[in-house]
Amino acid sequence: MPENALTKARAPIEPVSTLATAIAGRYTISKTFTFAAAHHLPGLPDGHKCGRNHGHTWRVRVAINAEELTGPGWVTDFGDLAPLARFIEQHLDHQDLNAVLPVSPTSENLAAFVAAWCQQHLEPTVHGRLESVTVSEGDDLSVEFRPRAVRG
Ligand SMILES: Nc1nc2c(c(=O)[nH]1)N=C([C@H](O)[C@H](O)COP(=O)(O)OP(=O)(O)OP(=O)(O)O)CN2
Ligand SMILES: [Zn+2]
């Protein structure tokens, strides 16, 4: 019989179990949180607009990775990231970031601040490792912070 679309579609397909074990790799899941907050950046030259109080709608994307899946076949339940949503709502949303952060509230410092919180409070409760925290002040600007892997 000549091969056509119908005979191709009826050809036996490789079982999913074979496919899944044939390729090794790393899975990364991520969740993005949004909040509004004010800030200003101290130490800039006179007249720099970022030295004045202003606000942004910030986006914080947290990525967790793992090479082995767990449970039903996931890195960790997206729902396991809920404590970060609570932290953001209680401590960052509609706040003055200059009063919250112990350092100048640039996106770089905010990303490292959130990553430190995640390492302390989130990583011990989820399957997988914190890969990165990405902070955006707007649609076209972002900073990604990747914690250095601890040896041992
Ligand atoms: N590397 C960084 N550069 C800047 C940061 C930062 O955190 N890291 N932050 C700022 C200020 O927050 C500033 O408010 C952002 O201003 P700007 O880049 O101009 O963004 P706008 O949304 O105001 O964009 P417009 O294009 O001017 O509308 C500055 N730089
Ligand atoms: Zn700003």
UniProtKB/TrEMBL annotation:
Instruction: Copy the pathway line from the protein's UniProt record.
Output: Purine metabolism; 7-cyano-7-deazaguanine biosynthesis
Please give the cofactor(s) recorded in the UniProt entry for this protein: Zn(2+)
Q: What is its EC number?
A: 4.1.2.50
Q: Does the keyword Cytoplasm apply?
A: no
The alphabetical list of record keywords is: Lyase, Metal-binding, Zinc
Which family is this protein grouped under? Belongs to the PTPS family. QueD subfamily.
EC top class, as a word: lyase
Q: Does the keyword Glycoprotein apply?
A: no
Under catalytic activity, the entry for this protein gives:
7,8-dihydroneopterin 3'-triphosphate + H2O = 6-carboxy-5,6,7,8-tetrahydropterin + triphosphate + acetaldehyde + 2 H(+)
Q: Which Pfam family, giving just one, matches this sequence?
A: PTPS
Query: What are the top taxonomic ranks of the organism?
Result: Bacteria, Bacillati, Actinomycetota, Actinomycetes, Pseudonocardiales
UniProt-listed InterPro entries: 6-PTP_synth/QueD, 6-PTP_synth/QueD_sf
- Output the Gene Ontology terms for molecular function: 6-carboxytetrahydropterin synthase activity; metal ion binding
Q: Which organism is it from?
A: Halosaccharopolyspora lacisalsi
Instruction: Identify this protein by name.
Output: 6-carboxy-5,6,7,8-tetrahydropterin synthase
